[in-house]
Fold:
Amino acid sequence: MITAKDRSELIAAVSDQGRVTAMRSALFHVVVAARAGINVTDFNCLAVLDKEGPMTAHELAEHIGLTRGGAITAAIDRLERAGYASRRRDATDRRRVLVELVRGGPYQDLLEILVGINHAYSDLAAGYNDEELAVVHDFARRANDLIHEQTRQLRDKAR
Structure:
């Protein structure tokens, strides 16, 4: 039986592992970006475009935390020159320009770099039964939502 002290220690240990995950993920992203020949800011742009879809430069800047217009323009220019992204007019509002991921070419090479970790995650998940996976998934989703909200709050306070 888990006591209140055991539970508080377990909660602290889970929180600590969350910080370790964040730190190791950030370092992993730096290494992957370097292997792909891009910087980590550009890698983060690609990750956002992959998960969220096409968006304006302003929206992309908001997602990755760039506050200066020139910085996101430079990042998009680099990604476009390297064949990772393209700009196109929004079909519903021709005044808007959307940035979108180019899924072929260099992006496929980047995905090849990630094959190892994708297999490792699948192997790790396979060691859990369905009920355990449901709990792990719920926790991960909620932890990601929590981090997203905390990031937004910290950005809003800085403004």
